[in-house]
Structure formats: structure tokens, C-alpha cells
Amino acid sequence: MGLELYLDLLSQPCHAVYIFAKNGIPFELRPVDLVKGQHVSKDFSQVNSLQKVPVLKEGDFILTESAAILIYLSCKYPTADHWYPSDLQTRARIHEYLGWHADCIRGTFGVPLWTQVLAPLMGAQVPEEKVARNRAAMDQALQWLEDKFLGDKAFLAGQQPVALGYALFEGRPQLAAWRGRVEAFLGAELCQEAHGPILSILEQAAKKLLPVPPPAAHATMLRRIARIP
Amino acid sequence: MGLELYLDLLSQPCRAVYIFAKKNGIPFELRPVELIRGQHLSDAFAQVNPLKKVPALRDGDFTLTESVAILLYLTRKYKVPDYWYPQDLQARALVDEYLAWQHTALRRNCLRTLWHKVMFPVFMGEPVSPQMLAATLAELDVTLQLLEDKFLQNKAFLTGPHISLADLVAITELMHPVGAGCQVFEGRPKLAAWRQRVEAAVGKDLFREAHEVILKAKDFPPADPTTKQKLMPRVLAMIQ
Fold first, then answer.
1. Segment B21-46, tens digit of pLDDT
2. Is the pLDDT of residue A169 over 70?
3. Which of B77, B83, B78 is nearest to B95 (CA)?
4. N or C of chain A: less Cβ packing under 10 Å?
5. Distance from CA of A29 to the nearest CA of B (A)
6. Residue in A76, A93, A95 closest to B68 by CB
7. pLDDT tier at A158, thresholds 50, 70, 90
8. Which residues on chain B are in Cβ contact (under 8 Å) with A92?
9. Which residue of B has its CA nearest to A140?
10. B3-80: CATH topology
11. Contact B149 A49 (CB under 8 A)
12. What is the model's pLDDT at position B93?
């Protein structure tokens, strides 16, 4: 068995891994449907006891955390140097971005999916105050992204809740232009494919096309909702 | 001007950078930035890091923030022993995995524990409800269990038979709740044994030196109102 990637394209870190791997790295896609609660199934828990995606499996070797997976893939497979340049300082900048991203983007930008789609699906209410706080946090993070990080070839493309009613790049022409460049480089088709699920999720929710997550998944999901600051 | 490291040993990531540089004999100028006096908010420090955080590294014209980035930069530039960040792809991936996971897991919970148990009530004079504290300690407990079950398991160190950056980052994080008076190693013999191994590998004297400040966190005099006002907004944002 070659390289297997366990992904749900609803998940931010999975997008990045998917887009990167499609760059000519042969792999078997193992879809894990989060809304259907497949991540808490016995089978998947055997692959990753943390019950999260993405996961890389290569024979006996199992690796979690998208940053680790991306770095591993870029070092193991022949990929263009610009993704993870060997120059000391440039590479340091990438790690600097990844560190900041982990603290300021990952948790923050994942929240709208929970407040707008998943919590309502479970019948859980998130106070408006928290939604507002999250919006402010995203705003601040975008400002930092523009002021401090833009211009660097960070390879984690942060395509986020554009679909969830937040015109993220409105009034931020620099970021919008950057996003355009990234998408042009990666190819519109691939981006469309990777971002399909997240872009259509609001529509599906409105049309009541989303299944209610199974009881087995409720505990972890409710805990995640409770952690929204 | 050679390598400069802007650090406050009150901060978990600063301790990891400090220990790493000292242990590997990397020559540097220490530039202390006292967080409880709000020195990170000064205009002078903003010139070094506009994000106003420590640690920060300056190497000639090159400025770098984020402790993991700094540790990796030092690793590559100063050609430290391989075990810190192995050449072997899979071994290295496991270190990357821990360094990625810890941000929102151990780092966050250890930070919240320190603030909810000690820094808010004692330093800021802001009481924390018993429920809030209990919830934070419960989350810490869950994370400690994950650290044991997913990372350490039955190995000598987090990612294999040798110490790595993962262990250094983890141990410095765990000293935060220890500084807050939490006996995190009690009732966890596996973790306690791992701690001994990490301390021995780092060197007891260096370990003690790096942790002097955090172990006195309970005894910090209360902040004066001006300092408290200055620090509060960023503290609240930091521990979300």
C-alpha cells in the first residue's frame, strides 16, 4: 500500500494537504466525512486516536498535523523548491508563518463553520457576543497577515470562510490580489475542487441537505463549541 | 553585532530557546524583555517585533519571531547534534508533528493554568471563579493524558529513544503549571520518569537556571494599576 491521505475537504488543513499532494504526488484519498461523524468511528480511531484529519499513512508510518505532513511530503517527493526552500532565512520565514498561523488563524478562522453551520445542526446555540468577538479576531489576524506576512511564499493558502457570508477580502485589496496570485498559481480547477465542500456548505445547510451528526460525535463537537471564546 | 535573543524566562517558548542556545554553546547576546513590566509593549521593542511578542531573534539584518522557527533556524545554522531535529525524514516528521500539535494543545492549556491559578488572582488582582479554574485544570488533565498516550507512550522521549526539540518544548511548557503550584507529575509516573530523563539530558544546572523565574511566579508582587491596565487587553487575547 502506498501513500494514503485521510482527508475531509471541509477542514482547513485538509485543503492545503490535498492541493499540495495533487501537485504530482501519487496517493490514495481516504475520505473521512466529519459531518457524518466518521472521524469518531472505530476504524478511523485506529488510524488516528486523536480523531482528527488530515492524517498521512505510509505503510506502518502514521503522521498527523498538516504542517508536519506538508513538510514531510515536500522533502520526500520531488517537488519544486519554492514550496519549502532550502535557503536558511526563507525557510525560517515559512516556519515563522506556520507558528503564527497555528496560534492566530487555525482556531479563529475555523469558528464560523461551527457557529454558522455545525452548532445549529446540533441544536446548540452560540451567543452573539462570541460571534462578534470571533469576527474581531479574524479582522485583527487579517491585518497582521497583510502587514507582517504578505509577500512571503508561505505555502499554506488560508482560504477561509468566504462562503460563510464574510466578505473576507473586501476592503483589503492587497490580500485579495495575493489570493488571486495563489489561485492562479495553483490552478483554478484544483482550487475549485478543493474548496467545493466548504464553498457550498452554507447552501446545503439552508436547503437542509446536511445530515445531523451522529450521537457518537456529539461530545467532542459540543466541547469544541464550548471552547469558542 | 552577533546573534541577539530577546527573551523573558517567564515565557514558555523563551525558556526553550534559551536552554537550546546555551546547551549547544551558541554564542548570543541576551536582550531581556520584562513582560510583567510591559517592556514588550515599548516602541523600542516594536522595532524588533511589531507583533510585540517574545521570543525574538536578531541576526544582523535578519529578525525572526515564533519559537519553533527560531529553534529550527538555530538548529540549521549552528549544526547542532542530529538528535535535536533528525535528518531521517520520518524521525523528523514526528518532531514536526509534536511542534505543530503543541500550539493549541499543551502550550495553550499550560498558559491558561498559570494565568487562571496564579497570574490573574495574584499579579493582576482579578479573582477567577472556581468553575473557570476547574474547567482549565480539567482541560490540562486531558492534554496531559494525550501527551502520555499519543506522544510518549512507552518511549524514552516523545519521538523516540533520544531527546529532541519536541521534548524541550514540552518540558518548558509543563513547568508553567508547576510554577503555578500544580503537581502535574504526581500520579503520572511515566511523565515523571520522562521529565527526569529530559532534565538529565539538558543538564540539571541549566534547567534550574532557566526555570528560576517561573518557579517564583506565585510570589510576584501585584501589578500597579497602570501596568495592569496596559497589560490586560493583550493578556485576555493571549489566553483565549
1. 999 999 999 999 999 999 999 999 99
2. no
3. B83
4. N
5. 20
6. A95
7. very low
8. 62, 64, 69-70, 72-73
9. B237
10. Glutaredoxin (3.40.30)
11. yes
12. 98
- Can you tell me the distance from the alpha carbon of A201 to that of A196, in angstroms, rounded to the nearest whole number? 8
Name the one residue in this structure whose C-alpha cell is 499579579. Answer: B123
Residue B222, CB half-sphere, CA atoms under 13 Å: how many?
10
Pairing of strands B3-7, A61-64: unpaired
Terminal-to-terminal C-alpha distance of chain B: 37
Q: Is A64 on the interface with B (CB under 8 A)?
A: yes
What is the value of pTM for the model shown?
0.89
Quick check: B77 and A75 CB within 8 A?
Answer: no
| CA of A190 vs chain B CAs: smallest distance (Å) | 26
Tell me the average pLDDT of chain A. Answer: 80
pLDDT at B46: 94
- Inter-chain CB pairs, A–B, below 8 Å: 86
B84-239 is a CATH 1.10.3720.10 domain: no
pLDDT, position B64: 96
Q: Which domains can be identified in chain A, with CATH numbers?
A: 3-81 (3.40.30.10), 85-227 (1.20.1050.10)
- Which chain B residue lies closest to A48 (C-alpha atoms)? B150
pLDDT in tens, A206-225: 777 777 788 888 887 888 88
Nearest to A111 by CA among A103, A99, A119: A119
Other Cβ atoms within 10 Å of B161 Cβ, number: 9
Nearest by CB to A102, from B89, B104, B146: name it. B104
Residues (pLDDT < 70) of chain B are none
A72/B96 Cβ within 8 A: yes
> Closest approach of chain B CAs to the CA of A159, in angstroms?
20
Q: Where are the domains of chain B?
A: 3-80, 84-239
Q: What CA–CA distances, in Å, run from A116 to A205, A227, B111?
A: 9, 15, 29
CB A71 within 8 A of CB A84: yes
Nearest to A52 by CA among A193, A217, A212, A204: A217
Q: B92: which chain A residues are within 8 Å (Cβ-Cβ)? A: 72
Q: Which grid cell is A151?
A: 509577500
